[in-house]
Amino acid sequence: MSETGIFSGFPKEGIRFLENIIQNNSKEWLDAHREEYERDIVAPNRAYVEEMGEHLQILVPTINAIPKVNKSLFRIYRDARFHLDDPIKERIGIIFWQGAGHRMQSSSFYMHYAPSEVFVAAGIRSFKPPLLSTYREYIKNDAKREALHRILEELKEKGYLVPEPEYKRLPSEFESEPTFGYLTRYRSMYAYTTFKPDKVFHSEKIIERNFKIYEEMFPLQQWVYELTLYASITNPGKYLKV
Q1: DSSP assignment, residue 64?
Q2: What are the φ/ψ torsions at residue 168 (nearest 5 degrees)?
Q3: Could you tell me if 228 and 105 are in contact, meaning their C-beta atoms sit under 8 angstroms apart?
Q4: I need a labelling partner for 62 at 20 to 30 A (CA). Which of 81, 155, 167, 178 fits?
């Protein structure tokens, strides 16, 4: 990132910073290297959110691209209740979400990066119970289920990955196995791809690469967004308060 705040790629120093966290995972170490963290992680992340946000407005004019922690940027600290020995995250997450719901229960364009991998995805990576219940109700509609199946197949043909269903049995909400019944066994809905932190990642060209990925994943992102709209209408008390 240049001194003007214009995004020019994720710096190699940021990757080295994450490698150092793996070896020195403590709040004390991070506090002692706060200046590096702000320069090599936070500043380029904010610049990326602003730049990518402008590009994503082509696909979704109302996309949420807010370069702040707990918005498009994730906290560097893990939940201390469960991570006494490794309180610092060893990967950096960035999210752009659509709609008025919680960012993690809204259809989103997502990326995280670590020393060994960049992960780029669209959709929702984990349904909480209110949205899972709505998803199962939503895909009882044959047309919605067929549309989702077709979108996933087209993405797989383009080389993108889709996780395996999390459940092995037909959910109790269904009396019998419907067509494309494997879709009933999900508790998330997203597609993703991965690559190494390469020259493109360390340059402004990562904007173009990621935008192309998000553009190709857009049909899935929109299908999931329509699901969240359905949830906000049919069960707003539970969905919007998650």
Answers
A1: B
A2: -95, -25
A3: yes
A4: 155
**148 vs 135: CA distance, rounded Å:** 12
Q: pTM (2 decimals)?
A: 0.93
Q: Which two tokens stand for residue 235?
A: 């069960």
For residues 137-152, give the mean pLDDT.
Answer: 98
Alpha-carbon span 5 to 182, nearest angstrom: 46
The token duo for 118 is: 């960049």
Q: Given phi > 0 = left and psi -120 to 50 = alpha, else beta, which region is 5? A: left
Instruction: Round to whole Å and give the CA distance between 150 and 137.
Output: 19
Name every residue whose Cβ is closer than 8 Å to that of residue 56 and which is 6 or more positions away in sequence. Answer: 63, 65, 96, 109, 211, 214
Q: Give the per-residue pLDDT at 82.
A: 55
Contact present, 88 and 26 (Cβ < 8 Å): yes
The CA distance from 210 to 122, in Å, is 11
Which residue in 213, 218, 163 sits closest to 189, CA to CA? 163
Whose tokens are 């201390």? That residue is 80
